[in-house]
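tool_call predict_complex ligand=flavin mononucleotide
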Amino acid sequence: MADLRIDLAGIKSPNPFWLASAPPTNSGYQVQRAFEAGWGGAVWKTLGEPILNVSSRFAAVSFNGQRVAGFNNIELITDRPLEINLNEILETKKRFPNHAIIASLMVEPQQEKWHEIVKKVEAVGVDGLELNFGCPHGMAERGMGSASGQVPELVEKQTYWVKEVARTPVIVKLTPNITDITMTAEAAVRGGADAVSMINTINSLAGVDLDTWNTVPHVGGKGAHGGYCGPAVKPIALNMVAECARNPLVNVPISGIGGISNWQDAAEFMLMGATGVQVCTAAMHHGFSIVEDMIDGLNNYLDDKGIASVMDLVGQSVQRYSNWGDLDLNYNIVAQINNDVCINCNKCHIACEDTSHQCIDLYTESGRPMLKVREQDCVGCNLCAIVCPVDGAISMIEKKSTIPPMTWNERQSLISNFTR
Amino acid sequence: MSSQLERNFVEMTGRMTKNEAMEEANRCLYCYDAPCITACPTSIQIPNFIKKIASSNMKGSALTIMDANPIGASCARVCPTEILCEGACVLNSSTKPIKIGQLQRYATDWAMETDVELFKKGEPNGYKVAIVGSGPAGLSAARELSRFGYSVTIFEAEAKAGGLNTYGIVSFRLPNEVADWEVAQVEKLGVEIKTNTRVGVDISAEDILTQYDSVIVAVGMGSVPNLGIEGEELEGVHDAIEFVKRTKMGVLTEDLIGKRVAVIGAGNTAIDGATCAVRLGAEQVDILYRRTEKEMTAYQYEYEFAKQDGVGFKWLTAPKRIIGDEAGKVTGLECVKMKLGEAGADGRQRPEAIEGSEFIIEVDAVIKAIGQTRFVPLIEAFGLQHTNGVVDIDETTMQTSNAKVFACGDVVFGNGQGEAMVVTAAQQGKNAANIIHERFKKQSGNA
Ligand SMILES: Cc1cc2nc3c(=O)[nH]c(=O)nc-3n(C[C@H](O)[C@H](O)[C@H](O)COP(=O)(O)OP(=O)(O)OC[C@H]3O[C@@H](n4cnc5c(N)ncnc54)[C@H](O)[C@@H]3O)c2cc1C
Ligand SMILES: Cc1cc2nc3c(=O)[nH]c(=O)nc-3n(C[C@H](O)[C@H](O)[C@H](O)COP(=O)(O)O)c2cc1C
Ligand code: SF4
Ligand code: SF4
Ligand code: SF4
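tool_result ok
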C-alpha cells in the first residue's frame, strides 16, 4: 500500500484527489458526503457576494454517443449567504479534521474586500485559500474572475493583498482564456502565491439547436458564452500545467485541474508537475463514489511500479517536456502492420493515402487482402495507428538512425557558425 | 483418446478481447444503487469492477469481484446471468444489457494469469473451524474465515477439492483450471484441505464436533436416485453426475460414438448429461421428461444450448422399463405417454400415465438425471434436524439445530428453501463465516 498523502504548499490531505470549486462543493452536506466517499480535499464553491443564478445552466457535448465528452456551464459563484457557508465549513472541518478544505474566493479588486473575506474564512479554520481569477462569464463582466485573471498586474496585485493578511497557504487559480498562461502564473508568484491551480473553464458555446436556432443552453431564448470543462479539455489543461511546471519563474506547487476523470489522468498530471489534482465534471457525471477507483487504481499503479509515495511521481516527466527546437530531427519511427490481427477495414490506408504520405499499399497474397507500409516513405506521423480500430494491428517502430542526433537549434547554430 | 473428443470439451465461449472489454466497460452507466448489484446473490459491486476495467485498474477490478465472491471466476462462467445481474441491468429497457459475466471473466482471467496475491490471511485468533466439503459453499466460508484469522480445516471426500465445480459442471463451460485456481487461492491463505477424507468414514462426525470450535457442513447433495424401474443395473445406465464427472476427470471414452442415448429428466443436470453425450460422439441424444416444456426446470439458456447441440426433447414421456440383451447391455427403453392431470400439493399439475400408450425406443445408453439424493446418515451423524434430508437452518444465520454447526450450499437447498447455484452456495458460505466471526467477536468482547 503506497503512501497517497500529499503536501501541497503546506496543505496536507490523505490523498491527491480534491473536488474542485464547483457544484459538488456547494454545501457542507455535499462536502461531507464526498469525504465519506474518500475524497481527500475539497475546494469550496467560490465564496463572495452571493449572486443570482439563471436557470438552464449546463450543457454537454456528446461525442459519437459517449455522453459528456465536454461540459459547459453558465453558473456563477455561490448563491448562498456567506454566513451559512462559513458555518458549514466550520462544522465540516470539525467532522473531518484531516481532510483539506480550501476556501475559493472571489471579490471585487479592492484591497479591503480581499482582507475582509480572507479573515472571515480563516476564522472558521480553512486549510488554505484559492483565489478564483478564472470564472469566464458573468463575474468577468463585473470585473472579477477571468477579467482580472487575464491581466497579470491585477493577478499580482490582488494576490499581494491577500498575502498581506493570509495565514494559510494561498493558491491562485488561473484562467486558460489567455494566450500564455505562464504570464499570469508568474504574476501570481510575484504577488506571493504559495501555489497555483489550473485550469478554470474555457470560453465556450456548447451548440446551436437546429430546430429552434437557439443556443445550447439558452435562457428564455437568449444565450451567453459559458465555460468548458470535462474530458475534452484535459490535453489543454495538461499542457498548461506542464508549461508552468517547467518554467523556473513559476517555482511553486501546482494543483492540476481540467478533465481529470480517473486515476490515470491524475497520474499524468502529477508526472507533469501537479502536486495534486482537482475534479469537477467526472464527479458531476457519476457521483462521488468514482474516487474509490481513483484511490485504488493509483495505489495499485504505485505498488506495481514499486513507488512508496505518490509525492515521488510529482514532476517526473517535466524534464522531458521542452521546446520543439530541442527535439532530435534524426529520430525516426515508422509504422508496421501486423496482418494477423488486422481486420482489413482499410482505414489506415485511406488515412495515409488521402491525408498523409501515401505509403500504405494494399495487395493480395494467396487471395487474402493484405496491407504493407513502404517504410522508406513513412514519415512516422502516427495517423494510421491513431485511426486503426484494432489493438496491436499497427505498431510504430523505432528505426535506429545512422546519423547522430541533431536538434533544430543545434542545426541552426551549426549553420550560423559556418556562415560566420 | 481422440483429440477430436478433447476439443469437444474445451471451453466454448472465448474471452473478450481488450477492445471488446473496453467498449463494453465504457458502455456501463455506473448506475447509483445499481439493480445489477441487488440481483447478484453475492452483491458484487458490479459498476465498480466494470469502471476499474475501463481505467485499466485490473487488480482492483479482480479484487472487487473476488472480495465479494470467492468463487467469482467460476461464477463468471456458470451463473445464469440472464436471471441474475444481466437480467436486472437497466440497459435491458433501452439498448441491451451489459455483458457482466463476460467482463467478470475478463477481470478474473487477468488475476488467474498474473497470479497476483489478492488477499491475505488474518491475524490468527486461536479459533478452529472445521468445514465438511470443499465445494463453492465450503471454499467460500474457508476463504472468509481465514481472512478473519481462523485456523480452518476442510475435509473433502474426493481426491481433489472444488466440489461440483471440479467434478460436476461440464468442462466446456467451466474448465478445470478455473476451479483449481479458486481452490489454490484458498489454500494460499493457509487453509488446510484434507482430501480423500470422507467424514463419517475416515473421521467421525463426533470427532469433528469435539475437536473444533465451530463446524460448517457444506457437503452438497449425493448421487442421482434410482428410477425405481426394471433394468437399472444394466451396463449403459449412468448416473448423470457420475457421467459428467468422468469427462471432468479427462476420461473421454469412445464407446458412445455413433450411439443413441436417452436422458431421463429435464433439469440442468439432464442438459449437462445430454450435451456431454453429444460431445462424446453420440449420434442421437433425447431428453425424456414426464411433464412439458413449460414445467422443465432447466434454465432457458441451457435449454437453448441443448437444442443447438442437436439434443431432442420428448415431452410427456416417462420411462417404464430398461431393456437389455443377454450380455447385460442396454438395448432399449420402454416408455409410456403421460398427460397432465389435477394440480398436486405443490401447485403443479401431476403427470399421469396414459394407459396402453407404451412404446419402446432403441437406445444404447440411459442417463438418469432426476435430481440428487441427500446425505441423510451424515446429517444425522452430526445430530442435525432436517426435513427430507434438507438440513433445517435459520436462513439469516445458517445455524442448524446445533448452535455450533452451520450448514450452507446444496445441503440446505430444497423444500422451497434456496437455490442450487454456485453463487448462492458462495454467498451462504460467506454468511456462515460472518456469523461465526460476529459471535466470536461478541464472545471475546472486541466487537
Ligand atoms: C451437473 C451440474 C451442473 C450444474 N451447473 C450449474 C451451473 O451452470 N450454474 C450454477 O450456478 N450451478 C450449477 N450447478 C449447481 C452447483 O454446482 C451447486 O449448487 C453448487 O456446487 C453447490 O455447492 P456446495 O458447496 O453446496 O456443494 P458441492 O459443490 O456439491 O460440494 C460438496 C462437497 O462436499 C464433499 N462431500 C460430500 N460428502 C462428504 C463427506 N461425507 N465428507 C467430506 N466431504 C464430503 C463433496 O465431495 C463435494 O466436494 C450444477 C450442478 C450439477 C450437478
Ligand atoms: C457548473 C460549474 C461551476 C463552476 N463553478 C466554479 C466556481 O464557482 N469557482 C471556480 O473556481 N471554478 C468553478 N468551476 C470550474 C471548476 O472548478 C474546474 O476548474 C473546471 O470545471 C475544470 O475541471 P473538470 O474538467 O474536472 O470539470 C465550475 C465548473 C462547473 C462545471
Ligand atoms: S439535476 Fe436536479 S436540480 Fe438539476 S434539473 Fe435535474 S432535478 Fe433539477
Ligand atoms: S486500420 Fe488497422 S485494422 Fe484497419 S486495415 Fe489498417 S491495420 Fe488493418
Ligand atoms: S445496471 Fe447495467 S448499466 Fe447500470 S451499473 Fe449495472 S451493469 Fe452498469
